[in-house]
Amino acid sequence: MTTPPGIDILQLHNDADRDGITRLVAGAILHADGRVLVLRRSAEDDFMAGIEELPSGAVEPGENLLTALERELAEEIAWSGAFTLDPGFVTHFDYIYGSGRKTRQYIFAVPHQGQPIALSREHTAYRWLHPTDLTESDLTPETAQAIRAWAAS
Ligand SMILES: Nc1nc2c([nH]c(=O)n2[C@H]2C[C@H](O)[C@@H](COP(=O)(O)OP(=O)(O)OP(=O)(O)O)O2)c(=O)[nH]1
Fold first, then answer.
1. CATH H-level superfamily of 9-152
2. Closest CA to 33 of 140, 112, 88, 136
3. Which ligand 1 atom lies nearest to the CA of residue 48?
4. How much distance in Å is there from the Cα of 48 to the middle of ligand 1?
């Protein structure tokens, strides 16, 4: 994947370092016809069990935000092949992960172009959610806010 115009990946990494972030997560607002793909975490997950979330996951050693996103989309929804990011859109939210690591999830927008979605065991269901229906979801307030920011962009 190539970096789209208006998104400086190195700058995002630098901003996170500057802000004392020690764990980075890449997430995707995968959208089709104005709706956003949300996944339900397994009820057996020992962490945030059963909530809805965006396809996302932590950046591992040797990866950057984009290569991590590519891997996570492959792992979580079985997306293979190239995909593009919408130019210019990136948002983020911060939280403390389990043992106290300062985490930042950076969220990019990815147009869905008909690729089939197949879930891993991490998630039990998916659906396409319109931003006007955010209050009827089990998304966290932070994720809902990110989707609102995307809808307003
Ligand atoms: N811990 C935590 N998670 C939050 C908060 N707010 C919020 O939206 N989340 C969401 C972001 C993610 O969708 C999910 C946590 O995912 P994560 O990537 O940090 O953790 P994980 O258990 O999936 O970690 P991993 O398997 O990728 O290593 O919860 C919060 O305040 N604390």
1. Nucleoside Triphosphate Pyrophosphohydrolase (3.90.79.10)
2. 112
3. 29
4. 7
Distance, in Å, from the CA atom of 59 to the CA atom of 57, rounded to the nearest integer, reads 7
In Å, how far from its chain's centre is CA 118?
A: 16
Ligand 1 center to 103 CA (angstroms)? 9
What pTM was computed for the model? 0.94
The residue with tokens 């996302």 is 56
CA pair distance 148, 49, nearest whole angstrom: 23
ipTM: 0.90
| Percent of residues, the chain, with pLDDT higher than 90 | 85
Which residues, judged by CB distance below 6 Å to any ligand atom, belong to the binding site of ligand 1? 25, 47-48, 53, 56-58, 95, 97, 103, 105, 140, 142-143
Confidence check: pLDDT of 91 > 70 = yes
